[in-house]
Amino acid sequence: MVIGPNACGKSTLLKALSRLLTPRKGTVTLDGRAVRDFGQKEFARALALLPQSSQAPDGITVGDLVARGRFPHQRFLRQWSVEDEAVVERALAATGVADLVNRGVDELSGGQRQRAWLAMVLAQDTDVLILDEPTTFLDIAHQIEVLDLCEALHQEGGRTIVAVLHDLNQAARYATHLVAMKGGRVVAQGAPKDVITEDLVAEVFGVRAQISTEPVTGAPLMIPLGLVGRP
Amino acid sequence: MALGLGLAVIVLALAIIASLAWGTRSIAPSAVWDALTSPEATGDEALIVTTLRVPRTILGVVAGAALGAAGALMQAITRNPLAEPGILGVNAGAAAAVAAGIAFAGATNIGVYMWFAFAGAGVAAVVVYAIGGVFGNNGSVVRLTLAGAAVAVVLSSFTTALLINYPSVFDVFRYWDVGTIQGRDLSIVAAVTPAIVVGLGLALALTPRLNVMALGNEMGRALGANPRTTVIVAAIAVMLLAGGATAAAGPLAFVGLAAPHLARAVVGADHRWLLPYSILLGAVLLLGADVIGRVIAAPAELQSGIMTAIIGGPVFIAIARRRRLAKHERPHACRRPPHPHGPTVRAVESPRRRRGAGPPACHRCGRGARAVHRHHHRPAARCGGGDLRAGRPARRDGGA
Which regions of chain B are under pLDDT 50? Predict the structure, then answer.
């Protein structure tokens, strides 16, 4: 889970991880192999990305959108298989949009739409999922729904999920490994309770905060008090 | 959808029959059949069918199919619903290159000037894409369309100048200014058909990639489709299709616009269906326009290029007016406070809005709703709480 203020390079980091940007220095590796050595489709079978903003073409249905996630698994002569069908159905069921298969994406509410896109990324059937702010625009119930889904995918499906979140408390609650960024650099990383400290929140976000412990899960709980340097 | 495709084939067959039977001189279907099946049928009617109407019909099918496919490809690549080889100046480029080839290089044979057409189509497409901002990040639907219209005007005046000043050009294609499928003999059709068939094959092979690319450049790459190869292959296909059609028939507009839109109304956004439909409907449209042009002005004829413009012009205006030319699909966050009545305000699309009545108002509170509209309907990439009126592409969190 990646946290950090606006314009600190979170999306840039995710783009570099997912090969959309080539780093000027250094190499990104996946399972010990440089990502630029992967074939186009091969990489898309290993790692999926949901960018911050995506545009669905006019009039596309949810089912059609999710089916397009199968592209990297298809070849010129092997277009649509039973496996594709099964994976798409699982993705639709996991995200709870199975009822919406025949609805147009442009008719959906924000939460439904986000879940449809998540279903598309799931249909890619990769071990690594990169989600750029998957909960933005969603109400609290849908946020929790998406995060619980991610947690389930992580714990039961054994997938690695890299996500940018803006809500520190949610990040602390759901992350197994938290990375805090500022000004294009990683400032701190580790278990949430080691990363979310009063000093770090002040340094990274410029916010005075009190950190206590959430009574239910024991995750750190951040209560903002005000901006640093202001009463 | 497969059923619909069968239906489209039947409609095309009817158009072919109509094209063979109707004209300045009406010929009974039985006489047409005789002329086509028995080589010894001579007579006037048989002669008209075999030497005039058969090449004309085949060219109508081939060129219409090519333009329909080229339009669908261009709309997919540019994500611009108004993209079309006629409107974006590709056909005009092919025509200008052919005219130049005839005037300056003495290329009077279709086998030679066809290559000029491909080159002209390719160069025009690249120039229009460059001016229209397709290669950069600052392109817009309107900008690309204007760039195409401007280049098309420049190129067709160039063609006209050559037609007026070089008799040789005038002789070879005096109907070229508007485009027609009439009066071309079979050798011309035979020369361009292979190129068009290759172009159609490329277009059909690209359809899964087009589907993925339609989700946006980043998403397309994340799914493993290389945008650059897709764009290049599509450009080659458009060059062959539009260049081939123009080399044989002259610049024809609007077929490539209307066919994909009709197809989209039937099959939706899946290019694996959209493209075959566009091909069939393109052929139906061009042939239909040609037949209508023969019937309404009888005993004279209206050239098919004029007919496609008469039919296609209103289609163009309707599409430009009706559609939100760019829209986002995932919601986006703005720092601007939302309008109190929220995204339910449909002021700009409301049919109740009187034109010319000033800025549209919210249908519930009467307050200016344009800000709301902009707020909720801008493409995600353009909106982010920045100053939209100034057109500054603000990002929600400064690009983090």
Answer: 324-338, 342-364, 368-400
Q: Does residue A74 belong to any structural domain of this protein? A: yes
Which residue range(s) make up the domain with B289?
Answer: 2-322
From the list A43, A55, A61, which residue is nearest B328 (CB)?
A55
Task: Considering only the beta carbons, identify the residue of A7, A48, A76 that sits closest to B400.
Answer: A7
Q: Which residues of A touch B333 (CB under 8 A)?
A: 136-137
**Where residue B107 sits, what CATH number does that domain have?**
1.10.3470.10
Taking the Cβ of residue A169 and every Cβ of chain B, the question of whether any pair is shorter than 8 Å is answered with no
**B332: nearest CA partner in chain A:** A137
**Per residue in B96-129, pLDDT tens?**
998 888 888 877 777 888 899 999 999 998 898 8
Q: Is residue B348 classed exposed, middle or buried when 0-12, 13-18 and 19+ CB atoms within 10 A define those classes?
A: middle
Same domain as B122, residue B258: yes
On the 0-12 / 13-18 / 19+ scale of CB atoms within 10 A, B285 is: buried
Instruction: Compute the distance between CA of residue A24 and CA of residue B154 in angstroms, rounded to an integer.
Output: 43
- B212, B219, B400 ranked by CB distance to A11: nearest: B400
Residue from B79, B204, B213, B219 whose CB has the most chain A CBs within 10 Å, to mutate? B219
Structurally, chain B folds into a number of domains equal to 2
The tokens describing A201, both together, are 């929140």
Question: Are residues B313 and B353 part of one domain?
Answer: no
ipTM score assigned to the predicted complex: 0.81
